[in-house]
Design goal:
Shape: globular
Distance between the termini: 7 Å
Number of strands: 0
Largest sheet: none
Strand content: under 5%
Length: 68
């Protein structure tokens, strides 16, 4: 996950950032499935609501013991 998050660095192209977000979301979904954490990442369009869901999911995964 850290490698994918590193792709969010300033100066990265828009395409690279979109691809990195999609890859990161896919990893979050896998982690949620493995740990039984509910998520709505696939239901929300890209934007503020999805970013808020990412933050919520990250916090839930941390509470399950996953280091992000």
């Amino acid at each position: 996950m850290r490698r994918v998050r590193a792709s969010f660095e300033p100066g990265a192209s828009a395409i690279k950032k979109i691809g990195a977000r999609q890859a990161y979301d896919a990893l979050l979904v896998q982690a949620c499935t493995a740990l039984g954490v509910e998520h709505r990442l696939h239901l929300l369009p890209e934007g503020m609501d999805r970013e808020i869901e990412r933050l919520r999911v990250e916090e839930c995964l941390r509470h399950q013991g996953l280091s992000l």
